[in-house]
Amino acid sequence: MAFEFPGDVYETIRAGMRDVVSETDFLAGLLPAGGRVLDLGSGAGTTLRALAERGFEGVGVDESATFVDYAKGRSGSGERYAHASFADFETDETFDLVTCLFATVNMVDPAELPALLVKVRRMLKPGGRLVLEAAHLLNFVEGFQPTQLTHHTGADGTVVTRLARISVQPHDAVWRNEETLVVGVSGGAATLYHNFFGQWVLTAPELRNLLTAAGFRVTAEHGSFRSTPPMGRGPLIQVAEVAP
């Protein structure tokens, strides 16, 4: 798995796929005043920066050194970032909210998920909550295209063309994504980046069972950060709290 391309390129792509305002509204609604957030798979820091603007502090963890460096360069006093895998990340701090968004949970080997969820439970303050945003089975099936071509334009005029090839490894229940990014700026030469990643296919019942086994109770499920019902195409957003 590799995501070592510039953070500003990632933010340009992400902006075309996300509604940051709705996402931030949703997460802020789960936090007490001055609450603290742990973002697993924080990418270029988009989520934590948006929450910091509303007065929340946060810690971001990501395996991409490039993304973490980008996030650190734009962080305020209420944000910190760690370059680490989820399995290796350790802290004695506790949080009001732990998030794992944008199908990051699908990039974790299912064999590692039980231990990760138990670790997350220990990191939550009493009354704290976990938000998982997963791509679920129907999402993969209904949205499957063997090749994709998309264009994304940044506020600075940067144009990113994303060429993706998706293949299925059925015996492992993995969707493999191979991407080439062509990044161009006005009057400048184009730059190419290549990255690949696998996504394990998860179902809603599997996630519920994993959360229950780790000591959580699912309190809500949505199909978007506007709290719409879960649908075939689109994410599955689960809110969970530590079970009594």
Structural key phrases:
four-stranded antiparallel sheet, globular, alpha/beta, 2 domains, Rossmann fold, S-adenosyl-L-methionine-dependent methyltransferases, 244 residues
Walkthrough of the structure:
- The structure is a single chain.
- 25% of the residues lie in helices and 35% in strands.
- The protein is built from 7 helices and 11 strands.
- Helix 2 packs across helix 3.
- It has 244 residues and is an alpha/beta fold.
- The protein has a 7-stranded mixed sheet, sandwiched between helices. The protein has a 4-stranded antiparallel sheet with strand order 6-7-8-9.
- A hairpin with a 5-residue loop joins strand 6 and strand 7.
- The radius of gyration is 18 Å and the shape is globular.
- 35% of the residues are buried.
- The model has no long low-confidence stretch (mean pLDDT 93).
- It folds into 2 domains: 170 residues, Rossmann fold, CATH 3.40.50; 63 residues, S-adenosyl-L-methionine-dependent methyltransferases.
Poorly predicted ranges: none
Share of residues in strands:
35-45%
What string gives the helices and strands in order? Answer: HHEHEHEEHEHEEEEHEE
Oligomer description: single chain
Name the CATH superfamily classification of the largest domain. Answer: Vaccinia Virus protein VP39
CATH architecture identity of the largest domain: 3-Layer(aba) Sandwich
**Structure class:** alpha/beta
Q: What is the 3D form?
A: globular
Biggest sheet architecture: 7 strands, mixed
Beta strands, count: 11
In whole angstroms, the N-to-C terminal distance is: 37 Å
CATH class of the largest domain: Alpha Beta
What's the tally of helices?
Answer: 7
The helical percent reads: 25-40%
